[in-house]
Design goal:
The complex is a heterodimer of chains A (about 425) and B (about 450).
Chain A: H1 2-13, E1 19-26, E2 34-42, E3 45-50, E4 60-71, E5 73-78, H2 116-121, E6 125-130, E7 146-152, H3 158-161, E8 162-172, E9 179-180, E10 189-190, H4 193-222, H5 232-235, H6 238-241, E11 247-250, H7 254-266, E12 271-276, H8 283-289, E13 293-295, H9 315-321, E14 326-328, H10 339-348, H11 353-358, H12 362-367, E15 385-388, E16 399-404, E17 407-408, H13 414-423
Parallel strand pairs in A: 1-4, 5-6, 8-11, 11-12, 12-13, 13-14
Antiparallel strand pairs in A: 1-2, 2-3, 4-15, 6-7, 7-8, 9-10, 15-16, 16-17
Helix pairs in contact in A: 7-8
Chain B: H1 18-24, E1 39-46, E2 54-62, E3 65-70, E4 80-83, E5 88-91, E6 93-98, H2 142-145, H3 152-158, E7 161-166, E8 173-181, H4 187-190, E9 191-200, H5 214-240, H6 252-259, E10 263-267, H7 270-283, E11 287-291, H8 299-305, E12 309-312, H9 330-338, H10 342-349, E13 353-356, H11 363-375, H12 380-385, H13 389-394, E14 412-415, E15 426-431, E16 434-436, H14 441-444
Parallel strand pairs in B: 1-4, 1-5, 6-7, 9-10, 10-11, 11-12, 12-13
Antiparallel strand pairs in B: 1-2, 2-3, 5-14, 7-8, 8-9, 14-15, 15-16
Classes of the chains: A alpha/beta (about 425), B alpha/beta (about 450).
């Protein structure tokens, strides 16, 4: 409740994105922690950080009352804004039909009034990557379901929320699928390996053909072919082929990872490997390729019955040990708010705590090409800040205020509304 | 695959030893005779199963029965005589649970779609509860639907199988099995015992059809037995005094269940074996379990129950249609390694068991399966018993089948070495006193 009163008090004093936040411990992530420090924010950006900052004349001063300030966290895989309630089809804008839809940029479909936004933000998450794929099911959305958009969790319209509408092109790398869920069938239908392999190979051929077509289109366009008919799908491929836009290659297990990396290498793509769950011996291949990784939630259950219970808990630590850069993504909406706690689990299982924090702040900012403006508390970066009464990765910590571009968003959400409502029940 | 043998006539041109050639000329009636002539095997090693092995004996078969055996048996002048030097005579092998020649599957209510479950005609009606008698054909009898023309009969016979307990196996209550002889004969002549037990499985139906869960299947079996008890009471009361009483409706599903002399229940994993033992005790039925792969873990409860178990020789293997890169679980690997040790464990514990083919289509695979059991500690005598006398005892036909004794049906295998050895060739198979010569594999290929 203290958080709510403070939020209310702060909201009343609000008029501009220029202020001095003082009497706080700053956790810049990029640098060692600074106790008894202050942060000067001017027009939504961090103007200065230090222990001996004087308040410029007339500036609003916010007393942090000894609390901690962290950079806003980034969740690298959600469907926030595209899907409200999975079971309500009207509220779902994911999984467009067709195998190849690189032209889709989910940002423009984001609902700025999604209840997921304040709920997620209240835990200190200020930016998310949203994907146009059905993350819960295994099907839907095809091979290239569209782009991944990076957005900040504040804004009246999707335009205001944009960080990068085309942060990466999503490619769900085809897999050998041995069981298929069919509507009306009680159990998944088993597919013999050879048949599944054939289906996989045919999908892989489709993918290769699509890339070939895109390259032919690229050549024709470069040559100024007057006959060329504009194809917005292939048009959307141009920045990808030029290496300007990375490809988020979704591949979970060892075989898929190997084949996805080989594909990325052949096509000379700028790869971000996503959805990694069970890399096994492909860890070396990931390291050799030098690509960053978006990991699934460390609290995912192990995939096989003989896997150790901490198979997924310790995966971030293993990646860190190999020197592989990674960030965490929820790959869901309803638990997107827990990404910090997921990082804490990784820290409990061998990942250095500083690295755990980095995996939801500076690492994703770097992976998504925003390390000049997001992910740490440094001069010149956006003032996406989280004020909390303890370590932001600890579930018992209360986030008391969230700033996005210096604007106090508060920590109100559907959860606090319901909390108050049922607290007041006679 | 051995080709072309299915059409081979039961009476092949015989290679007659010189001593019998004179007799041949005296048999002009042979082709027309309904019964085969007497058959004698001389100077052979005879493994009787019930008695001691005769190292150098003579066996006389007449009218389809074993007439005599011993060191000095007089051979009728008109008998076919086989020189058994270097050969061993065994009782014919029996597949203790088979679908061989069992006949066409009939539609059942609530059957799954053909794509997902056991083969069923499409358009089967969904069942809503036990009253629809889902997945039940308890009234059908393999003996009545027997397909004498099944090409596999000859295939199995060539491998030394002379008999099978063959069942309709679809659904929860598949139907009644029959013990048959693998003779090239009209269906009626193949049947040794028409109704030896009712095959049951804990099957589930298609989507939206009862039962679709294990507990649903078990509850259905319970309900059927409860219904059957009530049905009997109603019928008896009605038979005693029909006047003034409502006529109980005829229920073929219950009639079939009541007629069952044994109930075959599934039990492959240890938990399934214990479950079926409890179910059989609860239903107060004489049960025969089938499966047995994890029986090595539950030999004690099996022994105490006194129920026999049929052990599938289709040992668990890596799924040939699975992902070759998949890392298998310790549980799967353990079962695969230890299942072939179950027969030895059962033999040691004194549990009666018999082998069955469990869908293996090739007799070679069955023999390989038996050899694996032998390699895993089962002695050969016990293995032979599990394919001869034990199934005969389990299905109540040991007075006719399962061993070489005078008066029993003349089902024999005559081989040139130990029956389960890889190099051993089967020279003759005798079913109901009729001699068959297997096509040698080299020629067949």
């Amino acid at each position: 409740m203290r958080a709510l009163y403070l939020a209310a008090a702060l909201a009343a004093a609000l008029h501009a994105e220029t202020f001095l936040l003082r009497n706080v411990t700053v956790h810049p992530v990029s640098d060692p922690d600074i106790p008894n420090a202050a942060i000067l924010v001017r027009d939504g950006r961090i103007a200065d950080v230090g222990t001996r900052l004087a308040a410029p004349k007339g500036i609003r001063v916010i007393d942090g009352k000894g609390q901690h300030v962290f950079p806003g966290m980034i969740n690298s895989a959600t469907m926030i804004g595209l899907s409200e309630v999975g079971a309500v089809s009207a509220g779902n804008d994911v999984g467009e039909a067709g195998d190849f839809n690189p032209q889709l940029r989910p940002l423009i479909a984001v609902n700025p009034d999604s209840e997921h936004i304040p709920v997620t933000r209240a835990n200190g998450i200020t930016s998310v990557v949203t994907l146009p794929v059905s993350l819960t099911g295994t099907s839907g959305g095809g091979i290239i379901p569209g782009h991944a958009s990076l957005l900040r969790l504040d804004g009246w319209t999707w335009e205001e929320m944009e960080i990068n509408r085309a942060a990466a092109m999503v490619l769900q790398f085809p897999e050998v699928r041995l069981s298929i869920n069919t509507p009306g069938e009680l159990r998944p239908v088993r597919i013999p390996f050879l048949e599944a392999r054939r289906t996989y190979e045919s999908r892989l051929r489709d993918l290769t053909t699509f890339f070939e077509n895109a390259r032919r289109y690229q050549r024709a366009r470069t040559a100024g072919d007057a006959q060329l008919r504009t194809d917005i799908r292939l048009e959307a491929m141009l920045p990808v082929l030029e290496g300007k836009v990375p490809v988020l290659l979704l591949a979970g297990n060892e075989r898929a990872i190997r084949e996805a990396l080989a594909f990325g290498g052949r096509e000379k793509l700028k790869v971000i490997l996503g959805g990694v769950r069970d890399p096994g011996a492909a860890m070396a291949a990931i390291k050799a390729a030098g690509v960053p990784v978006i990991l699934r939630e460390p609290t995912d259950l192990p995939g096989r019955e003989d896997d150790p219970y901490d198979h997924n808990y310790s995966l971030p630590a293993r990646l860190h040990k190999e020197g592989i850069r990674f960030a965490l993504g929820s790959f869901n909406n309803q638990f997107a708010r827990n990404i910090g706690f997921q990082a804490a689990f990784a820290a409990a299982y061998g990942l250095p705590p500083q690295e755990a924090l980095r995996s939801v702040t500076l690492s994703p900012a770097t992976i998504w090409g925003q390390d000049d403006s997001l992910g740490s508390i440094e001069k010149g970066k956006w003032a996406d800040l989280v004020l909390a009464d303890g370590d932001i990765l600890e579930p018992r910590t209360n986030v008391t205020q969230v700033f996005i571009h210096g604007r106090e968003t508060g920590v109100e959400s559907k959860h606090t509304r319901l909390y108050r409502r049922y607290l007041a029940r006679p | 695959m051995i080709l072309g043998q299915a059409d081979s006539p039961p009476m092949k041109p015989l290679r007659i030893p010189p001593c019998a050639r004179a007799a041949l000329a005296l048999l002009p009636f042979l082709g027309a005779a309904a019964d085969p002539p007497a058959l004698a095997v001389r100077n052979a090693r005879i493994v009787t199963v019930t008695g001691p092995v005769l190292e150098n004996g003579t066996l006389l078969v007449r009218n389809g029965l074993i007439e005599a055996l011993g060191g000095n048996v007089p051979v009728p002048a008109n008998a076919w005589v086989l020189d058994g030097a270097g050969l061993t005579v065994y009782p014919g092998l029996m597949d203790a649970l088979s679908t061989l020649a069992a006949g066409a599957d009939l539609p059942q209510p609530g059957a799954a779609s053909p794509r997902n479950g056991p083969s069923a005609p499409s358009g089967a009606t969904p069942a809503r509860g036990p009253e629809d008698r889902p997945l039940t054909t308890s009234w059908i009898k393999a003996a009545d639907t027997l397909q004498a023309a099944d090409r596999n009969i000859d295939l199995f016979r060539q491998a030394g199988f002379t008999g099978a307990a063959t069942f309709p196996t679809r659904g929860i209550f598949g139907g009644h099995g029959a013990v048959i002889n693998l003779a090239s004969a009209p269906a009626g002549k193949m049947v040794v015992e028409p109704s030896v037990g009712l095959y049951a499985a804990l099957a589930t139906g298609g989507a939206g059809s009862f039962p679709s869960s294990l507990m649903g299947s078990i509850s259905y079996i319970r309900q059927i037995y409860a219904d059957a008890a009530h049905y009997v009471a109603m019928k008896e009361a009605y038979a005693a005094n029909a006047r003034g009483r409502q006529r109980p409706a005829y229920d073929r599903a219950l009639e079939g269940v009541l007629e069952a002399r044994r109930l075959l229940l599934p039990g492959s994993r240890a938990v399934e074996i214990e479950r079926s033992l409890r179910l059989a005790a609860e239903l107060k039925v004489r049960a025969v379990l089938y499966g047995g792969h994890e029986a090595y873990r539950v030999t004690e409860p099996l022994k105490q129950s006194g129920m026999p178990i049929l052990v599938s020789v289709k040992w668990p293997e890596r799924d040939p249609n699975g992902d070759p890169d998949e890392v298998e679980s310790l549980r799967q690997l353990r079962l695969r390694a230890q299942a072939p040790g179950s027969p030895a464990a059962l033999a040691q514990a004194g549990v009666r068991f018999a082998f069955y083919s469990d869908g293996l289509q090739s007799p070679d695979q069955i023999k390989r399966g038996v050899r694996r059991a032998i390699e895993n500690g089962l002695d050969e005598t016990a293995a032979l018993r599990a394919m001869t006398l034990a199934p005969a005892e389990i299905f109540g036909v040991a007075d006719r089948l399962g061993s070489i004794e005078p008066g029993k049906i003349a089902n024999l295998v005559i081989a040139d070495g130990p029956l389960f050895a890889e190099t051993t060739r089967i020279r003759y198979v005798v079913v109901d006193g009729v001699k068959y010569e297997p096509v040698q594999r080299e020629n067949a290929r």
